[in-house]
Design brief:
The chain contains eleven helices and 15 strands. The protein is α/β, with parallel strands linked by helices.
């Protein structure tokens, strides 16, 4: 597995300059709200995914008064080699990403090198917000595991933007539109099949984790909904062409997909309590972790940001019994309650590191 041994963060959010060394097992970060716990987790995420976990515009990731930020990490890789990855982003959003001081020709070539999973309070948007959030989740998972999926998604989005631009032109070229529709269909087919497999693979694993976490009191389910369930992409586009001309944008297709989360047959967003929703979301992310581990052959890095919030002690105990298993690799945990976190983690393992932050400055305890 990839283990983050050391990180250097400069001018990222409220962190001016920090160099920290981590445990290969569990790393605990404590501090009051707003002091920088999540910012450090974001920096670790950024090294893997080259963008914010929370869709934050790049200019807001740069520390106030600065014109760029940089993050570098030294990793022990699965083959036992040590590699250094670095990212620098300026105020214009230009990114330079390097592995062992050699810059990647394309940012996308880095995705999947350092598999990672994050559980955070912002995950509630997967339940409460639109299908766009759930598609973003699926894209983040599948892009790490499958470069062909990432390539297809990028190609589809470029073609979709081109098609929407054409639909705004009164002199629509039907021949060019037909070519774009055909190429969109090719990319959409790759995306659809991957998402369909992903949903089927997720369902039983999420259900099992939820039973463990909640005590088995409810049944949860995931359904993949797509316009392509009953037709090809080209058929969908043809059927909606007249509507699209009126609306002047593409109203149907793979970019309208959704994943429906239910509990006992009802939408979780309507019938689930905060604790039940949090338990489902943790189960969803742990299922993602299992699927990625199976795909890679080793464990991803796991980030648990404020994960104890809204969980009762029974669910916290069940959660940590899962985390304590041998199947998990390097873990980062944040909590504002230092004593609670220390008591919980010390009961699991002594192979851990504790950090405390005040105003973006971190101290190892």
């Amino acid at each position: 597995m990839a283990i983050l041994e050391k990180i250097v963060v400069q001018d990222f959010r409220n962190i001016s300059l920090q160099e920290l060394e981590f445990s290969p097992n569990i790393n605990c970060i404590s501090g009051n709200n707003g002091e920088g716990k999540t910012n450090l987790m974001e920096a670790v995420w950024y090294l893997s995914m080259t963008k914010s976990a929370f869709s934050t515009p790049e200019k807001y990731n740069i520390r106030y008064g600065c014109d760029s930020f940089s993050i570098a990490g030294t990793y022990k890789m699965p083959q036992g080699l040590v590699s250094r990855f670095s990212i620098k982003v300026d105020a214009n959003g230009e990114k330079k990403i390097k592995k062992d001081d050699k810059q990647y020709p394309k940012v996308s070539e880095h995705i999947g090198q350092l598999p990672i999973v994050m559980v955070s309070p912002s995950d509630t948007s997967l339940v409460s917000e639109s299908g766009e959030e759930r598609r973003r989740f699926a894209n983040a998972v599948l892009s790490q595991m499958d470069i062909s999926y990432l390539t297809a998604a990028q190609q589809y989005n470029r073609l979709l933007a081109q098609r929407n631009k054409m639909l705004k032109d009164e002199r629509l070229d039907p021949d060019l539109l037909s070519i774009i529709d055909m190429r969109m269909g090719q990319s959409a087919d790759v995306i659809y099949r991957a998402r369909e497999r992903f949903a089927k693979e997720l369902q039983p694993v999420v259900s099992e984790y939820y039973k463990t976490l909640s005590g088995g009191s409810e049944e949860v389910s995931i359904e993949y909904k797509s316009d392509l369930n009953n037709a090809t992409m080209e058929e969908v586009l043809a059927a909606h062409l007249q509507k699209d001309k009126i609306l002047r944008y593409t109203s149907a297709g793979i970019h309208r997909d959704d994943f429906v989360f239910t509990m006992n047959g009802h939408p979780i967003r309507r019938c689930g309590s905060q604790g039940q929703q949090k338990s489902f979301l943790v189960s969803l992310k742990f299922a993602q972790y299992d699927i990625m581990k199976k795909s890679y052959g080793y464990a991803p890095i796991l980030l648990l940001d404020d994960v104890f919030d809204k969980l009762d002690m029974n669910r916290i105990s069940n959660l940590l019994s899962m985390v304590a298993g041998d199947e998990f690799g390097q873990i980062f945990i944040t909590d504002s309650n230092k004593v609670r976190m220390a008591g919980i983690v010390d009961a699991i393992t002594k192979d851990s590191a504790f950090f405390e932050t005040v105003g973006g400055s971190f101290k190892r305890l």
